[in-house]
Amino acid sequence: MDLKRPIAALAAEVRAGKLTASDLVAASLARIAATDSFHTVLELNPQAAHDAEIVDARVAAGEDLPLAGIPFIAKDNFLTFDTHTTAASNILKPFRAPYEGPAILRLKAAGAILVAKANLDAFAHGSSTENSDFGPTKNPVDPTKVPGGSSGGSAAAVALGQACFAVGTDTGGSIRLPASYCGVVGLKPTYGLIPRTGVVAMGSSTDVIGPLTNSVADSALVLDVLAGRDASDATSIERDTEAYVATSGDLTGTRIGLIKEYLGAGLDTKIKDQIEAMVSQLEARGAKVEEVSLPATELALAAYYILVPAEVSSNLARYDGVRFGHSSAGATDLEETYRLSREEGFGAEAKRRIIIGTYVLSSGYYDAYYKRAQKVRTKLVGEFSAAFDKYDLLLGPTAPTVAFDLGSKSQDPLAMYLNDVMTVAVNLVGVPAISIPLGTVDNLPVGLQLIAPQRAERNLLAAASAVETIIGDWSAR
Ligand code: GLN
After folding, report:
1. Exposure b/e, 307-342, CB count within 10 A at least 16 = b
2. Domains, the chain, ranges and CATH?
3. Closest by CA position to 41, among listed 112, 126, 105, 134
4. SS3 letters across 106-155
């Protein structure tokens, strides 16, 4: 059974009794087993078959479920009852969550079935999934390459057809980058549109949840289930009253700004050619495309790698060997419990971020780093908002290159951080963005990124859908 078929069609067949949730879950588990060598999954949900029977009973009882019987995978930084929640870090290896957040609960209520937890860079720190304490995931198109990160297991799982969709998190690009490297659709919604309660916190001012899917229509359908305020997350916002759908829009009159800074040095010229070819196609369909300069985007990466480590250092303070996960057996007093548990449990990247974050927040350095980075963030917000006075959408590549060789950057944190140069500004500004498969360069997937003003997901999805139609990737489905 092909789990890459449109979710709406599969769910309709389940509702009509032509297919069962149990069939779909069995197909998903079989596919995961058959493609095990890519190491997308950290743990299977032992309750998946049982959950499928319950959904089949709900369908039989006449419940109208938008995601009836649809198997999905959650990045392992989502708290889930029936499995461990490790965030791919040794410090959380023994951890079992005491609750599930609104995202997981909403998916289950809609009839979706959690089949597995996906690999990630530990605590979502990274761009290649090589920072996982449990070994890297391999790129689904070429297993010698990285899948991108930090939601690399999730993106690769979707590309491999292991489940119909995955949910990931995007603090600085972690949904869009792996979507680009694996050839799937990755949506980063407006900050707050999906409540983030029940996700292991990374950078609380930019963390968002979003879907990884095989099509824009699937992305819209999953967003429609996930979106909306919940009292448990004070930063969450109201959803649109209308459904999020991906109607392949007419682009007549759509004003698109092509981000100049994302097309300069560092961008693979073959990716640039593909972006330019797509721009001509969009113009042919009535869009008005112009180059726009957003000079502060050149400072966004530096600001991000100050602000997010600052928040990381604070969020990781809770792993003290007392309340969560790993507690050192060698400790003889409280202070040693803190020190040894953290020393033994955290990997190199988490430690690096704790040190950087603590440093930039410390007295004497706060003004030089944290405060200046906040000023850059304010400047970025201003530039994006000015751009959105003139344009409905912004466009650029998702990443400067295609997927790179496993191991080629894992010893060089700065080279790794540079992969995020086109994704982090969106997070600092809080606007929605989507990565759509554009084609291939050197036989590896390339992503196109569209960015919209806050809460303009419906426009974003319509334009993404138009791009997808142009590419024709899904005409054969
Ligand atoms: N690659 C970025 C980082 O390492 C983004 C991570 C993310 O979005 N979770 O911080």
Report:
1. bbbbbbbbbbeebbbeebbbbbeebeeeeebbebbb
2. 7-226 (3.90.1300.10)
3. 134
4. HHHHCCCEEEEEECCCHHHCCCCCCCCCCCCCCCCCCCCECCCCCCHHHH
Instruction: Count Cβ atoms within 10 A of the Cβ of residue 62 and give its class: 0-12 exposed, 13-18 middle, 19 or more buried.
Output: exposed
Is the pTM value of this prediction over 0.90? yes
For a pocket test of ligand 1, which of 76, 123, 127 has the largest count of ligand atoms closer than 8 A to its C-beta? 127
- Determine whether the shortest distance from the Cβ of 150 to ligand 1 is under 6 A: yes
Between CA 118 and CA 224 the distance in angstroms is 22
Ligand 1, residue 203: give the atom nearest the CA: 9
For the purposes of burial, counting CB atoms within 10 Å of the CB of 469, is it exposed (0-12), middle (13-18) or buried (19 or more)? middle
Measured from the CB, is residue 409 less than 6 Å from ligand 1? Answer: no
Other beta carbons less than 10 A from residue 374's beta carbon: 15
Cβ(214) to ligand 1 under 6 A?
Answer: no
**Residue 38: how many CB atoms within 10 A of its CB?**
22
pLDDT in tens, 279-329: 999 999 999 999 999 999 999 999 999 999 999 999 999 999 998 899 999
Ligand 1 atom nearest 349 alpha carbon: 4
Coil vs helix vs strand at 394: strand
Could you identify the atom of ligand 1 that is nearest to the CA of residue 173? 8
Beta bridge partners, 213, equal 185
